[in-house]
Amino acid sequence: MKINENYLKLKESYLFSTVAKKVEAYKAANPATEVLRLGIGDVTKPLTPSVIAAMHKATDEMAAAETFRGYGPEQGYDFLRDTLKAYYSKRGVALDFSEIFISDGAKSDFGNFLDILSNENRALIPDPVYPAYLDVNIMLGRQIDYAEGNKANGFKPAPNLAYDADIIYICSPNNPTGAVYDKKELKAWVDYANKKKALILFDAAYEAFISEPGLPHSIYEIDGARTCAIEISSLSKTAGFTGTRCGYTVVPHELKFGGTELNALWVRRQSTKFNGVPYVVQRAAEAVFTEKSQAETGAVIAYYMENARTISAALTEKKIWHTGGKNSPYIWLECPGGMKSWEFFDFLLERAHVVGTPGAGFGKMGEGYFRLTGFGSKQTTEKAVGNILKLL
What we know:
Helix content: 25-40%
Distance between the termini: 58 Å
CATH superfamily of the largest domain: Type I PLP-dependent aspartate aminotransferase-like (Major domain)
Structural class: alpha/beta
CATH topology of the largest domain: Aspartate Aminotransferase, domain 2
Strand content: 5-15%
Number of helices: 12
Radius of gyration: 21 Å
Order of helices and strands: HEHHEHEHEEHEEHEEEHHHEEHEEEH
Number of strands: 15
């Protein structure tokens, strides 16, 4: 018996464990000091009343023989797929019911979708990057190239015909940089993918945070995307489902390689390896898209975005270059004074008692940068920003 030795090539995930160790050591040495966390990547607000009410109702249904549900459809219940079809139509995106698949979160499908793609395909991954994109490809032994984000391109790398890519990862709004592609910029990637006969895996997990008119929420707002892209999204940050787990993946019927439709392969894969998302969770997810719940979740998103704007305004006041904070809960800043990422981490923690995330943990292009987020409380954000302003 042999193991998959590609797993041995994975780097240990030192980023968040190192952050935690440094914070605990600081707290132990300074027990009277309040540590203010602006590095949190999880939501802090609870599920909204409409979502909770739907979850309770569905739970009660599971207690009665007449309404009990056992195994559900692997692709998702009709009621939620219909709801998502209507949600997309509001953006001018027409989807067929059979193109929508319900998942237990975006992270799962970014790894699972690779099951139906050959390991001989080369992956093109942005740097800096959400670490899961990289690791799932390393696990399969796939060749990986990097599209480098930097200050000059606003951390929005553009396609280059020198790339030899089969699978292209795009995240917009981006984690960790908060950068958002406009329609022209996404069109360039779509045209590139169609020319190269490559596949785009588009991460739309933060689309609900976009407020600026004209910016695309879905890659299917771009002409030509249906022949080269799948879209993976989630309710984790949109509606606080990080602990509840529900997302969705769109696989258009036009998406074909070697004459084979990826939608059909994905149906076969899911039917074999996935038993579906629980009925109670899908009813809660359905409730997210009601008019009342959209107002409730919109208020929560506005709360996080106000925190992000507070951070962004402070950085602007101090003339610190950054992206994000406008259409994204993430703020990606250039470390002042030429500091390295971990050097700035220590500087903020020790002098302002503020915790963020060193950019170097997201790839080599993240060195010299730092991530802050708006997912904390308003009180914590305002205190932290006050400390940062005094320090800088």
